[in-house]
Amino acid sequence: MRLPLNKITSAIILAFSLPAAAQTNSTEQTENTTENSQIEQIVVTGKASGMSGLRVDQSYAITSVSAENITKLAPKSTAELFTVVPGVWSESSGGVAGANVFVRGFPSTGDAPFLSIQLNGAVIYPPSTLSFLENSSIFRLDETIHFMEALRGGANPVISHGQPGLTTNFVLKEGSDQTEGLVKYSTSNYGQQRIDAVLSGKLADRLYFMAGGYINQSEGPRETGFTSEKGHQFTINLTKELDNGSINFYTRQTDDHGVWHLPVPLNIDGIDNTFTQIGPLNRQATIAYGASGETASFDFGDGRGWNGGISGGSVDLDLTDSWRLVYRFSHINGQANTFGLVPEGGAVRLGDIRGANEVVTGAATGNSYSDDTFVQQIGRWVVLKDINAFTNDLALSQRTDNAVYTLGLYQTRYSVKDWWSIGNQAWHVLQKGGERLSGLACNDLQDSCSWNYDIDATGDGTTRALYAAVEYQLTEQLRLDAGARRENHQVAYTVDEGLTGRVSKAVDYDESKTAWTVGANYMWQPNMGVFARVNQGNKMPHFDDFRDNFDAFTAGDKLIKEVTQYELGYKWAERNHSLYLTGFYNEVEGELFVTRPGAPAEVLTTEALGIEIDANYIADNGFMLNLNATIQDTEITNHPDPLVVGNQAIRQPKWQLRLTPSYGFEVADMFATLYGTVSSVSDRYGDNGNTVTLAGYTKLDLGLQLEVTDNLTAQLAVANLTDKAGITEGDPRNPASPNGRYIMPRTIDFSVSYRF
Fold it and tell me: Could you read off the pLDDT of 5-24 as tens digits, one per residue?
């Protein structure tokens, strides 16, 4: 089979382009997008009206990632996909869940307080972060995803749920008149066994379906000695096309979890990026909890995961020639539990802690250990978390000759039930799967060697917001837009700290705030222009904010984080190249910094100044190059400790860069694409005092796709080719401890896909 040059070029362009319409899957539109891919990239996220538009015409920074690109990236988790987004620093080294995601220098102790995830335009869970739960932990990637869009700043603070930071919108594939599907088998050097499948087509006249999912099991990228990652997911998406619009409904059921990989001691022989403390000898453990000292056993090999469902849909109608109605809704219900072995302090020699008359052996094996053996306190943490939410977003728009006016109503009710027992430290042998020790005084007690923190908590939240926006085409080249949002936020929350049977903290919260944005877009050529924007948004407090900073709340602090952002952007798109530059400045006031639950909270203000770069080049000979980079300077401008003022924000790199070349060519009557990514990140600080430096690193990934036939494709992906031991973070609970979390070791993934 011989492929002409124009087919080679088109295939490469298509692999890095967004489909021409988010809700359409026709061959004709795909071919049109291929012809002018860099100019005609369509975006569907970021406008109050819900109308799609050309990326080059938008007055905000947005990144699109197609299904083809997601396949090439072969991310180990949803959070790892976010590494392709300029302005975002994603620490995905904890496993399939439990990532930390930072946006444009916004301060955070961890998790992802300034990241929200949408599915088909509706947020999956309104609080972007609760303790031990950020949005990416309850969302799994598979072949049912059509594409992902990532919007930073822009109109985010005004529309939908009002996230001032990063909103990522995942759009599901839809059916068409043609029945088609895919079956994919994946394996790896860490024993992965995974099957993905998706099928789409027509059920009846103008009624379409898409159904798919996966089943997966593996030991995981780090050697645990057992099946540490396993799960399954099933999604169905139904779309009914009407004469004046469409109606959509989907449901996504997931049961998936994986070991939670924690920081490990640094600079000790035998500990590298393949090390993990958990293993068969310690995954099952008993802890004592509460005032009564009751005990319970748990399997810590369950790690972090999600067992629940997300269901939702949309109604998109042209009511008249000028009036349009868009309604989106989403419901989520399930369990997002956490079981982990968490380090406390640094590694020491057994002889330094063993009493003179103590005979120390392994609790599981009875083995004896010499005094030179490295040991460490490991906490057995249990967090049981049930979540529920129902979200509605209704927007009514009127189009005139030169303007679009939108009025929107956003409402959500959400809840959480938490049961924690964290701390529970005991001395363990510091080796892969190292067992708990017996014979040490504190280990043989049912209590903790260091501290514990137990809670039983329940909370309910309600958010109601009315938002309005206008886009006005002032001249042929100049478009102005503005928006405002008035939000009421209510929280009822009670906590029993210590599991005493009595409420120790109670919250009844009712506050309202206003957010706004103003932007201008000037296009002096159809494919070249600039934009400017200013917005002011808010991050309202959720359950953990009240518990962690209860004294400040009872003293009158509203615990609202206020975010002010300025953006100045340049965009240029041609058929074979594009360049998007976005300069940004932001200030975040009122961020809470808590080293661990129960510890005193620090309240600080930070500023960040930087630039995001997103550039693409496509040559006629099959070569392509993508560059995305972020350069930023962050500063703590207000802090309880005057010595901290002027320091850099915690865990925020000064710069990061991703360079992705790709080359398509013919070989033995087949079409091959060779691609790779070089990722570099600068040094960061692990604490607000800037005393702990996290060294920068460079990582290399390599991949090969081979189109064996028109239907059969094979892919080989090697992540971290040089097995770099890069550090993503230190010990967030105690930055002074010599602990850190490594990026994943070298992995080799192989898959075979058959399309029909």
Answer: 343 333 333 333 333 333 33
